[in-house]
Amino acid sequence: MGEWEGEGWRWIFKWIKKLFAWEEDLVGDLLVVVNQSPLRANTRDVRNVVGQRMEKDSSPSYLGRLPWRNRAPPRAQLHLWFILQGILNTKERLHRLKFAGIEDDRCALCMEEPETIDHLFFSCKISSRFWYFCCNQWNLSLCLPKHTRMCLLSWFGNPFKNFDKQLWISMFYVITWSIWDIRNKIIFQAFMPNWEFEKRRHFWRLGIWVKGWCPDFPFSPMQAMEIFGDIRGWKTPRYPSKGLVLELP
Predict the structure, then answer these.
(1) Phi/psi at 151 (nearest 5 deg)?
(2) SS3 106
(3) What pLDDT digit, counting tens, does each position of 93-112 carry?
(4) Is the pLDDT score of 32 beyond 80?
(5) pLDDT band at 241 (very low <50, low <70, confident <90, very high)
(6) Which of 86, 157, 147, 75 has its CA nearest to residue 118?
């Protein structure tokens, strides 16, 4: 099925018969999908099963019971609620409503596909790299679902406990907010993102937000950016039920 090449895994599929041209195209599509979640040596495998419960679990009442609130500033919580409700003003939505100044519906990040909510945050090749980079800091490989609610439920099916679990939940907020922030700067300020800097800025923002809901958090935003591996696993005696962050960096 494959072989290790350094720290990465290369898939090698063998078939009992010669493939037709259209079948080779399907194999190419398959490789694109499986390579979105690359295997790495000396990394723990984790399986999340969301599938059959999706219709029930994605209901508004169920999502409201998830332990996801108060781990980000109120505006970021509202922003995620807009994403889940499908009412965010993406270019596809504004173009469909014939909003002035929106000439096309192409994604502001990749400029290839219509900028729907699902595409912008989860299936865009640019934002996907952002998710994979963040998961790599946890030594996890993530097969990112392409639908908003399925991605949220999959994210909450994490193997972490205590502080790490709350940190992981906060990261979901930070990633979605950061993607939207970069996207808006590109559209309205002709911003040219330096993605290496944006990755570092992401963890700096995470450090600020965590300090909001956990005042005992001993690390500075700069340390969150530089030594994130040391922050994971930090033992805290408690963390409050209400968030304290008032501003969004």
Answers:
(1) -65, -40
(2) strand
(3) 888 888 877 889 999 999 99
(4) no
(5) very low
(6) 147
Please give the structure tokens belonging to residue 176.
């979605």
For the whole model, what pTM was predicted?
A: 0.71
> Among all chains, which residue has been given the structure tokens 């958090």?
217
What's the pLDDT tens digit per position in 186-208? 988 889 989 889 988 988 899 89
Looking at residue 154, its amino acid is S
Half-sphere exposure of 155 (CA within 13 A, CB side): 28
State the Cα–Cα distance between residues 78 and 83, nearest whole angstrom. 9
Alpha-carbon gap, residue 98 to 92, rounded angstroms: 10
Token pair, residue 74, equals 């109120």
State in Å, rounded, how far the first CA of the chain is from the last one. 46
- Angle at alpha carbon of residue 39, lines to 38 and 45, rounded to 5°: 120
Q: Which has the closest alpha carbon to 40: 163, 128, 139, 120?
A: 139
CA quadruple 66, 70, 71, 74: dihedral sign: positive
Helix (H) or strand (E) holding 9: strand 8-11
DSSP, res 80? H
